[in-house]
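User: Predict the structure for this protein chain, please.
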Amino acid sequence: MIIKNYRWLIVTLIFFATTINYIDRQVIGLLKPVLEAEFNWSESDFAHIVMAFTAAYALGLLLMGRLIDKIGTKAGYTLIITLWSIAGMLHALARNASQFMLARFGLGIGEAGNFPAGMKAISEWFPEKERGIATGIFNSGPSVGVVLALLIVPWILSSYSWHEVFWITGALGFVWLIFWLLFFRTPGKQTGSAAAKENSGANDATARIKWYRLFAFPQTWALITGKGLIDPIFWFFLFWLPSYFSSAYSLDLTRPSIELIIIYSATTAGSVLGGYFSSVLIRRGWSVIKARKTALLIFAIAELSIILAQYTTAAWMAVAIISLAVAVHQAWATNVFTMASDMFPSEAVGSAVGIAGMAGAVGGILFPIIVGFLLDTYEAAGNITAGYNILFTICGLTYLTAWLLIHLLTRKHSSIRPEDLN
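Assistant: Here is the predicted structure, written as structure tokens:
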């Protein structure tokens, strides 16, 4: 059966997979006050639980990206969503911090494959001029997932306990899997004139490449920089913002929070508009890499606004500042992801995204150590908000640093050909 505009169905499917991915990921942050009260966790205990996830995520990205390039997009997504859904449900059985760390480790291994698989699908189905907006739609899944988590978690808690939150959200992946198995086709199998026009000549790239060769290219290190320095910042926003508003503005996290919903909804706009912006530049004749890097520079400058969060004592002013910051982050992330499909052949996109994502996860392992130390130190001094202010300053300055390194690594280098990897 020929499905018109089939490539947009693919984006829709991976968008929903990413949404579920972040619902499962965000639950622990929203349940943090409840779990802290029940298990008597410190900020450092919670940081260790986050680090268990990010350590597994780093390992999983390295393994899953390569595996997905070998077994293909359909089988790869089937495997990873099964793994992370089971791990998400197993959180309900945890009874101490160590057991939560084990559950988070399993979740991290499975969830690590989502972005390599999603970007591989986009590289297979979309031409360069459409990849930015396609990636923007795909990359808006995290923000939609977080917003849905903000609504779902309090609703479940109002009738049940935190155990049921993990059982119910973890099961969502199996619902998605039914639609994936029914509808996904590789480009070569979606035949017919309409599909051929949309296909842009892509195929299910499972060709063997020499994985280690990727590290010889500056393009790989540009992706490592763009993810390694910046991903830990988004995870900070993801896991600690609920706690920040709870401590700084007495936000009640047992009820749906309009403040957090607004903040995380802003990331959807940032993701889609960020991808659209660089795609518009390409359609106007800009070179692909120049368009992506110009967009990244604009976003890096805009991200300095997060530093202003420390100068406000009004909750809604903080919401406005942080909403802009997280939206700009997602615009940045969309363009970094798209650069992977611009610079690498589809045979290597999963591996390249996996390597870059691993760098981000390694940063995510290290950054919570700083976060936990600062927050515990300032909480002991009776001023935990000061710890958050220091963290916001660090976040604001990091994007320009990352952009400078990306620019230096890519200014003399274009796309990599498949034969270069053999």
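The radius of gyration is 20 Å.
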